Structures are given as C-alpha cells and as structure tokens.
Amino acid sequence: MNKSSNIGIIGAGIQGISNALFLQKKGFNVTIFDRDEPGSHAASYGNAGHFSPYASLSLNRTDVLADVPAMLLSSTGPLALKWNYVPKMIPWFMKFIFNTTKNKMMHTAKNMHQILDLALPAYDELFDEIDLEGLVENKGILYIWNEKDLKSRELEIKVRDELGVQQQLVNKKEIHDLEPNIKPFYHGGVYYPYARHARNPKKILLKFFELFLKKGGKFEKQDVKQIEFNDEFPTIQTDSQKFDFDKIIIACGAFSKKLTDKLGERIPLDTERGYHIHFKNCDHLLSRPVIFSNRGFGITPMEQGLRVVGTVEFGGLDNPLSKSRIKNLINNAKYMLDDLPEHEDEWLGFRPTLPDFLPVMGPSKNHKNVFYCFGHHHLGWTLGPISGKIVSGMIAKENTNLNLDPYSSLRFS
Ligand SMILES: Cc1cc2nc3c(=O)[nH]c(=O)nc-3n(C[C@H](O)[C@H](O)[C@H](O)COP(=O)(O)OP(=O)(O)OC[C@H]3O[C@@H](n4cnc5c(N)ncnc54)[C@H](O)[C@@H]3O)c2cc1C
C-alpha cells in the first residue's frame, strides 16, 4: 500500500503508541485518538513495570481451576470477584475452562513465547530513539515462594524449560543475597536475570509519545464513539467530528470490545482488574521486582517509591475500586517487608484478557481496513513494541516470518 497512507489509531496506551512509532518508521502518517491524555489512568500507566520475556505460561493452565475455590476464600489470596458481575461473565468463564486443557495451555504458551522472545529487541529499537535517563533497570526479576506453593511452580518451571526459557532456580541464601531486606519466610524461588523493569512506566510512555509528535504524528484528545465506512474506508466518529482514514487500528485495551461489538464481531474480551499502591521513598528496600508467588502479588522499586501490585478481580469495567483489595496489598507488602510507612495512590486498572490468554492482532473479520491490537492481559507492557512491529508489518504487507494465525480474531468466529 501507499506509504503516505493515513492511519488512525484509537488508544494511546503502550499498544497504540508502539503501533504508531513502528508505522512512522515505515513512512505512514499517523493520528492517535484517546479520550484522556496519554499515560493518565490506563493500564499502561499503572502496571508493575515488568519487562517479562520469560512469562510464556499464562493463567489458562491445567492446575489453576483446582486452586480457584481456595484462592477465593483466602483474604490474602490473589483472586476476587464482584458478585454483581459474575452472571455477565459466565460465557467468558466457560470459554476459559475450555482453554485449560493441557493442549490449549501449551498452544497459548508456545504462541506467547513466540512473541515474548522478540519483546526486548523490539523495545530496544524504540529505546534507541529516546533518552532513557535511567528509567529502565537491567537487574532481573525474582519470584519467591514457600513450600505450600511448590506443586504449581513445578509446572511453570517444566513448561518454561520445554520452551527453552532461561531460568535460574535460587535457594534461600541466594534470595537473601539478592534481596537482603525481604523477611525470610520463603523457601525457594526462580530468578530471571535478563528481565528488566521500568522505574516509571508513565514517563517511558510519554517519551515515546513525544517522539511520535516530533516525527509529525497528530493527537486528537477525543472519545471515539463509532466507526463508519465510506466504501471500504473507515471514518472515526467522535462526539463532535469525523475523520477519514485509509486504515485504522483499535488499540483500546480492555475497552476495545465496545468498538468491536459495534463492528458486528463478537470477540469475548473481558477484564482482569488489578490494583496498585505506593509506599513513597522506600524504593531503596528492593533492587528489582520481587513477586511472592503464593499470594500472587509483587513489589517493584520505582521512582514513585515501592509500587505494590496485584490481584485478579473479575468485576467488569464499571464497578468501583474494592477497598478490601487495597487492604490485601497493604497486608501482603507488610508480610514481606518491615518498616513500611502509610501507603499512597490507590489505583485500579484493567487488564484486557481473552479466555485463551492470547492477544488479538490482525485485520477485523468484516472490514479489511480495520486492524486490532488488544488483549495482552498481564503482559501488555512487555508486548507493546513487538505487537506494534507485527501489526504495522501487516498493514505494510510485509512478511514477518511468524505464524500470526493464533492471534487472529477469527479464532472466535
Ligand atoms: C495491575 C496491573 C499490573 C500489570 N503489570 C504488568 C507488568 O508488570 N508487565 C506487563 O507486561 N504488563 C502488565 N500489565 C498489563 C499491561 O499493563 C496491559 O496489558 C497494557 O498496559 C495494555 O495496554 P493497552 O495499550 O492495550 O491498553 P491501555 O493501557 O488500557 O490503553 C488503552 C487506551 O485506550 C483509550 N480508550 C479506550 N476507549 C477509547 C475510546 N472509545 N476512545 C478514545 N480512547 C479510548 C484509553 O483511554 C486508554 O488510554 C499489568 C496490568 C495491570 C492492571
């Protein structure tokens, strides 16, 4: 296609902005739409900041279902429900259960591994163009657990071994040497030395956004209501204006379904709600992100202080923040570290998740000039640039040498 074509992108999260930057590299004119300023509240602002190229095994795994009742009953556990939303989510849960067989689990793991393996090099292509100013640390990521959790960890380690993911099992002494301030409740762990973390995801996002503007990109702070078509070409309609494009990308994270439903395609996207709080001026207590696997939460040292992140809460996009989940994060953080002050900044965010835990990347079923890039669940921060590289390659009709069929929305037709 003509490289001076105009592309509209809906969503200025890490997916939308990464798509824009890779399209600009290929010579396209790009306009991004977002109802908010980039990096203000979205998942791409509040995440744990892990760049986790190892995390190929997702939550659709053979052992998770058996653990769900105990996780729901435990106040220290990672899982929660908003009961008013459960009836709406039943179709999603049914599809999720269907995706927890060994074959489906491995299908997801292999196809996540395919893109995760390329995630850091794709980031580096974008990092080469900005001044990172110490916003990314290369100190690895550490998972710790106590004995109760060993069974589940064995599956994870085995699958990652099968896929060729580098991992380093660490004993109590090695964990203490890496992170001496953690209370010694743990029995073992695994360390991913090549993983990285962001000291401030919002600042990184804004640096990418400034680069996008510097390269001639346009930004419209508008809520997109509708997509219409003039022949086969899409028109983005906001509250007050219409914009014509050659092609558009929907990259609205967990909110993408509102637009894909209007395009007549039933994609079963929902959200796993997650939370963060900060303990200001405490980031010196940890050198790298540490995840306490038994309780499904983690702490990342950031510019904002220690960011404590966790919870998978099924409750849709409209329910308010749950105070009990904030309490859960505070208690878990205090279980792990001594002398924490009062917490600040209670944040609720929305992971965009499909029931097979694979993202949707590629053209829409009904409209060849509409592309999708959403549904990256727990790994959307890690996968922003590689997804942008892949989808921009599809738009430019380049050969990516990857098998992209597993990410197509057609799998739900
Ligand atoms: C608690 C938590 C911790 C996480 N930790 C990690 C981690 O450590 N590592 C990792 O890799 N991933 C992590 N994730 C996942 C990751 O943050 C997300 O997958 C990723 O940020 C999704 O990016 P996105 O661009 O698709 O969506 P978003 O960041 O949600 O951006 C979507 C944008 O679309 C805009 N939008 C939506 N609808 C419209 C509309 N109609 N019109 C205009 N604009 C619209 C929104 O305003 C928003 O700015 C975490 C997520 C959560 C919630």
Write the layout of secondary structure elements.
Layout (H helix, E strand, L loop, with lengths): L5 E5 L3 H12 L3 E6 L8 H4 L3 E2 L12 H10 L5 E3 L4 H13 L3 H15 L2 H9 L8 E2 L3 E5 L4 H14 L4 E3 L1 H7 L9 E5 L3 E3 L2 H14 L3 E4 L2 E7 L2 E6 L3 E3 L2 E4 L5 H7 L7 E10 L10 E3 L4 E6 L2 E10 L8 H14 L7 E10 L6 E4 L6 E5 L9 H12 L18
Parallel strand pairs: 1-2, 1-14, 2-10, 4-18, 6-16, 14-21
Antiparallel strand pairs: 3-9, 5-9, 6-8, 7-8, 11-12, 12-13, 15-18, 15-19, 16-17, 17-18, 20-21
Helix pairs in contact: 1-9, 1-12, 6-12
Bound molecules: flavin-adenine dinucleotide.
How would you describe what is shown here?
This protein starts with 5 loop residues before the first strand and ends in an 18-residue tail after the last helix. The chain has one domain (about 5-410): FAD/NAD(P)-binding domain (3-Layer(bba) Sandwich). It has twelve helices and 21 strands. Helix 1 (about 15-25) crosses helix 12 (about 385-395) and helix 6 packs across helix 12 (about 385-395). With about 425 residues, it is of the alpha/beta class. A hairpin with a 4-residue loop joins strand 16 and strand 17 (about 295-300). Strands 4, 6, 7, 8, 15, 16, 17, 18 and 19 form a nine-stranded mixed β-sheet that branches. It has a six-stranded mixed β-sheet with strand order 10-2-1-14-21-20, sandwiched between helices. The chain is about 30% helix and about 25% strand. Bound molecules: flavin-adenine dinucleotide. Flavin-adenine dinucleotide (FAD) binds near residues 11, 44, 253 and 380. Flavin-adenine dinucleotide binds next to helix 1, strand 2, helix 2, strand 15 and strand 19.
